[in-house]
Amino acid sequence: MYKLLVSDFDGTLVGEELAISFPVVLAIDKIRREKKVLFTIATSRCLGDILYYNRDFSFLDYVVASNGAVVYDVNKEKILFKKSVLVSNVKKIYNTFSGYDIYACRKDRKFRLVNLEDIKDIYKLEIVCKSDIDIDEVISRLDNLNLKITCAKNYINGTYYVDIVYEGINKFTGVEVICNKKKIDNREVISIGESDNDIELVRDSGYGVSTNKGIDKVKEVSKEVMTNSLDKWIEEKFK
């Protein structure tokens, strides 16, 4: 029996219209009430973006935000874990990629990084890229800097990004924080993802699932490729 359901946000839980369908919300609410399954969103977005969706109809137990750099208990309104990018690394990235738009994510908001005056408590950086090829070039240059960071490719609503968090941080390390708190074994975690930043989440969960639109690297490490709609899949998996 699975005790924790974890879902990626962009592309998995919501589409380009950034709306969670009502049937999906009802399916999640049902397994939380009847099966006592905890529901978590694991996302590259900052925490504030996700809590906005929980304001009218509470369906969330936890949020793993900024690709694992922030873990939040929704019911207790409490940060369980946070790990910021080193200030020295923020400076090096900002100076190295001065020709790029760079965004910084704090706990509750994202802002464009236009100077180095206030760079503490930044949990994720985003370098906006022109194309998939540009992403590879940016990651190669970051690797050559030998910083204490983890990089992931990201593509949201027509925009390419390189996401940067502290070394060793990913969505599944955030999920492990929840598992340790709730005494949940990794084998009792079922997760859904589709993008580069979901690889560890899908690979290391007890039952990792790729959406039908998932990249090959996610499908390769998944136990299943979802072919049904998300609400129908949830109903079937937890019947």
Biggest β-sheet, characterized? Answer: 8 strands, mixed
User: Mean of the pLDDT scores?
Assistant: 95
Query: Structural class of the secondary elements?
Result: alpha/beta
The helix tally amounts to: 8
Radius of gyration: 17 Å
The order of strands across the largest sheet is 5-4-3-2-1-11-12-13
Order of helices and strands: EHEHEEEHEEEHEEHEHEHEH
Number of E strands: 13
- Percentage of helical residues? 25-40%
Strand content: 25-35%
The geometry reads as globular
From the N-terminal CA to the C-terminal CA, the straight-line distance is: 11 Å
Poorly predicted residue ranges: none
Quick rundown:
This protein is an alpha/beta fold. The chain has helices at 22-34, 47-51, 87-96, 132-145, 171-182, 199-204, 216-221, 230-237; strands at residues 4-8, 38-42, 62-65, 70-73, 78-82, 102-105, 110-112, 124-129, 149-156, 159-166, 189-193, 207-210, 224-225. The protein has an eight-stranded mixed β-sheet with strand order 5-4-3-2-1-11-12-13. The chain has a five-stranded antiparallel β-sheet with strand order 7-6-8-10-9, covered by helices on one side.
Protein architecture, described:
By secondary structure, the protein is α/β, with parallel strands linked by helices. It has helices at 22-34, 47-51, 87-96, 132-145, 171-182, 199-204, 216-221, 230-237, and strands at residues 4-8, 38-42, 62-65, 70-73, 78-82, 102-105, 110-112, 124-129, 149-156, 159-166, 189-193, 207-210, 224-225. An 8-stranded mixed beta sheet has the order 5-4-3-2-1-11-12-13. The chain has a 5-stranded antiparallel beta sheet with strand order 7-6-8-10-9, covered by helices on one side. A hairpin with a 4-residue loop joins strand 3 (62-65) and strand 4. The protein is globular and about 55 Å long. The termini are close together. The mean pLDDT is 95.
